[in-house]
Amino acid sequence: MITMTSEEEEKATRILLNQYKESFDSKIKNALVKAHLSLVEKIARNHSQMYKEQYDDLVQVGCLGLLSAIERFDLQQKVSFKTYSTHFISGEMKHYIRDHYSLVKQPRELQELQPKVNRAKQFLRSEKNVEPNAEQISEYLELPIDKIEQVLDLEKKSNIMSLDQQINQDADSNSASIISQLEDKKYQSFQLAQEDKMILSEAIKSIKDQSRQVIEYAFYQDLSQTEIAKQLGISQMQVSRRLKGAVKELWEILNTRVTPW
């Protein structure tokens, strides 16, 4: 079996995509899906392990994301199709997980445990200066580890980062989600498209280190402003100002990027 390099794979993919854009032949589309099914499966495995969801279900919704990527990919873009489609595939899976989570009534016992686990995490972070694992939390609270793991799983699902979530947890009436602040005139109903998520990801990389740091703590580590303040050795008020400044930076960058790539 001949193994192609990533450059060769991209070239072959673009040839198929070009043929599909010209003919809209379903056989070519199926060939593209088949060629990238392993990517869908890989992402599904990662999400299945992380969020404890059914692998087969994630593969199915991931394929929907792949189909969307095939339809929307612009051959003039410099980004590789693999990178582009990964955002669509992962995005569909996260939407599924979020929707599925919201439809399932969480056990009262786990709901009541959540604040205890959060307090334990906060204490252990400050004591050990690292993110505590389930075993450490279990020992600290003297509770069965399986219960702690269930609570942590619920938190992962409920905290899947949505780019329209609030950055500032105590935002005033003038502070809204990133999406509501970013008006793209190309979209009549602005629901952030996968291309825009990719642009936002790039924008986060380009802002000042100080701004990126608080965004990463708030988004990716889901820390409260008080927890961020402890991590950085500054006041909660300073954290709030940095977050607002970071949002402003992102807004300015994104407003200059009307078209992807």
Pick out the low-confidence regions: 160-194, 257-261
CATH homolog superfamily of the largest domain = Winged helix-like DNA-binding domain superfamily/Winged helix DNA-binding domain
How many domains?
3
- Whole-angstrom Rg: 21 Å
| Major sheet size, sense and barrel closure | none
Which architecture of the largest domain per CATH?
Orthogonal Bundle
What portion of residues belong to β-strands?
under 5%
- The best one-word shape is globular
**What's the rounded overall pLDDT mean?**
76
Structural class: mainly alpha
Q: What is the first-to-last residue Cα distance?
A: 35 Å
> Share of helix among residues?
over 70%
The helix tally amounts to: 12
* Total count of strands: 0
N-to-C order of helices and strands: HHHHHHHHHHHH
CATH class label of the largest domain:
Mainly Alpha
Task: Please name the CATH topology of the largest domain.
Answer: Arc Repressor Mutant, subunit A
